[in-house]
Amino acid sequence: MPKVLKCADLMPDCKTVIVGKDADEVFAKAEAHASKVEADANAKLAKKAVEADAKNIKKHVDAAEDKAKADIKTEKVKAEGEANVQKAAAK
Fold first, then answer.
1. Residues 68-85: pLDDT tens digits?
2. pTM to 2 decimals?
3. CA separation for the pair 5, 11 (Å, rounded)
4. DSSP category for residue 16
5. Which of 1, 39, 62, 70 is 20 to 30 A removed from 88 (C-alpha atoms)?
6. Rg of the chain's alpha carbons, rounded to an integer?
7. Contacts of 6 (CB under 8 A, 6+ apart)
């Protein structure tokens, strides 16, 4: 008589049903299934971590670009101010 293991009995979110001719076969299949499920879960977590890192990096790059633009604008205003002072002094 075949042996059956319902993953939902152990992991409610998993609907996999494992069937084997004996307990050893069922456990071997269950181990392989669990390894694949764990690998898939780890891959999803890694993808989320990479996406979060990318967002964080973009945020910092954007902030650096904004600061650089502000610095350029400040230097331009300073240069214009110095030019106006020199013009006024020359009069």
1. 999 999 999 999 999 888
2. 0.54
3. 11
4. -
5. 70
6. 32
7. 16, 17, 18
pLDDT at 54 > cutoff 90: yes
* Residue owning tokens 């409610």: 12
Give the span between the Cα atoms of 70 and 62, in whole angstroms. 12
Give the pLDDT score at 11.
Answer: 86
H helix or E strand, kind and range, residue 79: helix 23-90
How many domains does the structure of the chain reveal? Answer: 1
CA–CA distance, 6 with 16 (Å, rounded to integer): 6
Q: Are 16 and 33 in contact (CB under 8 A)?
A: yes
Cβ contact 2:19 at 8 Å:
yes
